[in-house]
């Protein structure tokens, strides 16, 4: 009898990994609000033959948690500390959404968002945010959104001043009408998820208008740069140095531009960085500033970043 029990236990232990705990994270996105709250959206794909999985949350203090399957149907879940356990039957995709203030910190005027992830993370900032520091170079930049690589990441930013009366988006508050809870096994049944207010629509419109203005301005600068190149297709190094004096440049920026000039107007970004002896993130921020001033163009060529003079 005892031997049969041992066999049953061994079989159960072999089957357990097939029915619980296996999943893969398809995507992870963060939306940062001006009040420091962050909306987290995680898309998870359960493995076949699983009926539940436990996934770590990015924070312990979470609000407005919702868990739905690929068809939008709420799924039962429970929370133990910062671990979320989701129960399901035939779900092929699970979407977890929640809000938390734990991912951001403020030191003076500088905000920082910090997180760790096994997959690249898309971060969307308020449209008045200006990034001032990063732990790594973004994989993509699209408007006020960046895609950071996997790992432990910190992005620091400041919020530009807005005139009185201008609308600044903040995280939805739980004091508004709440959506129905999607948990049947929740460890905090008294909580209700926050809902988004009407201000988000205005924020989106402002973002779209801002992008259109930037695009139009970029096109104008491109045309102006083209005109300059047609008028003065080639200049001496001495004349080039005189032109640089008309800009407020750091010593590293001036050295980088002269280095590009001496090499026919373009070079690999890594090559310029090594010449200056500066970190990757410092070089990335420097070329971003120079590109905004219309002095250089940064582009990809065979999976490498190149920098070309536009002056």
Automatic annotation (TrEMBL):
<dbReference type="InterPro" id="IPR002831">
    <property type="entry name" value="Tscrpt_reg_TrmB_N"/>
</dbReference>
<protein>
    <submittedName>
        <fullName>Uncharacterized membrane protein</fullName>
    </submittedName>
</protein>
<keyword id="KW-1133">Transmembrane helix</keyword>
<keyword id="KW-0812">Transmembrane</keyword>
<feature type="domain" description="Transcription regulator TrmB N-terminal">
    <location>
        <begin position="244"/>
        <end position="302"/>
    </location>
</feature>
<keyword id="KW-0472">Membrane</keyword>
<feature type="compositionally biased region" description="Low complexity">
    <location>
        <begin position="180"/>
        <end position="195"/>
    </location>
</feature>
<dbReference type="InterPro" id="IPR036388">
    <property type="entry name" value="WH-like_DNA-bd_sf"/>
</dbReference>
<dbReference type="Pfam" id="PF01978">
    <property type="entry name" value="TrmB"/>
</dbReference>
<feature type="region of interest" description="Disordered">
    <location>
        <begin position="168"/>
        <end position="199"/>
    </location>
</feature>
<dbReference type="InterPro" id="IPR011991">
    <property type="entry name" value="ArsR-like_HTH"/>
</dbReference>
<dbReference type="InterPro" id="IPR036390">
    <property type="entry name" value="WH_DNA-bd_sf"/>
</dbReference>
<feature type="transmembrane region" description="Helical">
    <location>
        <begin position="203"/>
        <end position="223"/>
    </location>
</feature>
């Amino acid at each position: 009898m005892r031997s049969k029990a041992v066999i049953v236990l061994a079989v159960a232990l072999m089957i357990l990994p097939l029915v619980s705990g296996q999943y893969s994270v398809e995507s992870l996105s963060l939306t940062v609000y001006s009040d420091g709250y962050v909306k987290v959206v995680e898309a998870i794909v359960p493995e076949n033959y699983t009926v539940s999985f436990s996934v770590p949350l990015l924070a312990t203090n979470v609000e407005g948690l919702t868990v739905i399957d690929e068809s939008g149907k709420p799924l039962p879940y429970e929370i133990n500390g910062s671990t979320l356990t989701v129960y399901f039957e035939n779900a092929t995709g699970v979407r977890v959404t929640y809000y938390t203030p734990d991912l951001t910190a403020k030191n003076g005027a500088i905000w920082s968002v910090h997180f760790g992830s096994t997959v690249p993370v898309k971060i969307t900032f308020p449209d008045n945010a200006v990034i001032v520091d990063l732990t790594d170079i973004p994989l993509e930049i699209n408007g006020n959104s960046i895609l950071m690589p996997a790992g432990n990441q910190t992005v620091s930013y400041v919020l530009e001043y807005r005139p009185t009366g201008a609308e600044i988006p903040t995280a939805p508050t739980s004091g508004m009408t709440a959506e129905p809870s999607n948990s049947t096994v929740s460890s905090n049944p008294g909580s209700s998820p926050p809902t988004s207010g009407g201000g988000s629509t205005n924020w989106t419109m402002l973002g779209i208008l801002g992008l259109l203005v930037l695009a139009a301005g970029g096109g104008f600068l491109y045309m102006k740069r083209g005109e300059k190149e047609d008028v003065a297709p080639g200049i001496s190094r001495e004349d080039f140095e005189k032109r640089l004096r008309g800009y407020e440049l750091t010593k590293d920026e001036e050295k980088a531009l002269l280095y590009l000039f001496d090499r026919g107007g373009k070079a690999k970004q890594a090559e310029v960085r090594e010449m200056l002896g500066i970190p990757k993130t410092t070089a990335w921020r420097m070329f971003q500033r120079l590109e905004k001033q219309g002095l250089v163009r940064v582009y990809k060529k065979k999976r490498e970043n190149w920098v070309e003079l536009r002056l």
